[in-house]
Design goal:
Blueprint (H helix, E strand, L loop, with lengths): L10 H8 L10 E2 L22 E2 L2 E2 L16 E8 L2 E8 L4 H12 L6 E2 L2 E3 L5 E4 L12 E2 L16 E4 L12 E4 L11 E5 L1 H12 L8 E2 L6 E7 L1
Antiparallel strand pairs: 1-3, 2-9, 4-5, 4-14, 5-12, 6-14, 7-8, 7-13, 8-11, 10-11, 10-12
């Protein structure tokens, strides 16, 4: 059982499958639309080269891709306003500049505003998955984010970690990410790009205690969680 983004060509079938297996999924529609270069917040600049490539899917919301030279560095403070309270995180642009650069760019463009966290897993993998404006688990920004796996350790994704979902193939992250609310064993295939503070983790744990809407180990959370806005300092 591995977290992944899935292909939109079989989105209806695969989304049903997501409720049976803990695959962390994200993808877009088949339209051929592509994202183009834009500007993300300036924070001193690391100069890291970031290959944001079109995934051949229509963006869930109209956005432009971040610049190919990362403009974030060091620790970036993030506040995610949600329907369950504010989730405060520190994003690690030192080891994941391309991922944080993409997240910051999408946040600046309002991509995450009014977006549901569509998936909760409670059976061995303990995550809340967010970042798809469509709420189906099939949405993305129209481009991929390269892997930055320096912090990923074999089997170890401790509580509080923010990490990127992917298709199970290298360099296939997009906009979807997951919040680990209890220590979780996963292969080191998912870019860790930040960490929530303990108070924020407790808010997510409170959601997890209510389980999924259908009572299963993998599905929409029984307590609706909506990202209202994301701001970065």
């Amino acid at each position: 059982m591995t977290p992944r983004r899935t292909s939109a060509r079989r989105s209806a079938l695969l989304f049903a499958g997501l409720l049976l297996t803990p695959a962390l999924a994200a993808c877009g529609d088949d339209s051929g639309d592509t994202a183009t270069e834009s500007t993300s917040p300036e924070s001193g600049g690391t100069g890291a080269a970031c290959a944001y490539e079109s995934d051949g899917q229509e963006p869930s919301r109209e956005v432009t891709a971040p610049p190919e030279q990362a403009e974030v560095s060091g620790e970036v403070q993030a506040s995610v306003e949600t329907s369950i309270g504010t989730l405060n995180a520190v994003l690690d642009a030192e080891t994941a500049p391309c991922t944080v650069g993409s997240f910051a760019s999408l946040a600046e463009q309002g991509y995450y505003d009014d977006t549901p966290c569509h998936r909760l897993t409670t059976g061995g993998i303990f995550v809340l998955q967010c970042g798809d404006p469509t709420g189906t688990g099939t949405g993305g920004p129209g481009y991929t984010v390269p892997d930055e796996l320096e912090q990923a350790e074999e089997g170890g994704y401790p509580a509080g970690v923010l990490a990127m979902a992917n298709t199970g193939q290298p360099d296939t992250g997009g906009s979807q990410f997951f919040i680990v609310y209890d220590d979780t064993q996963l292969p080191p295939s998912y870019t860790v790009f930040g960490e929530l503070d303990e108070k924020s983790v407790e808010l997510v744990r409170d959601v997890a205690k209510k389980g999924t809407a259908d009572g299963g180990p993998d599905g929409a959370p029984a307590t609706e969680v909506t990202i209202e806005s994301v701001s970065l300092d």
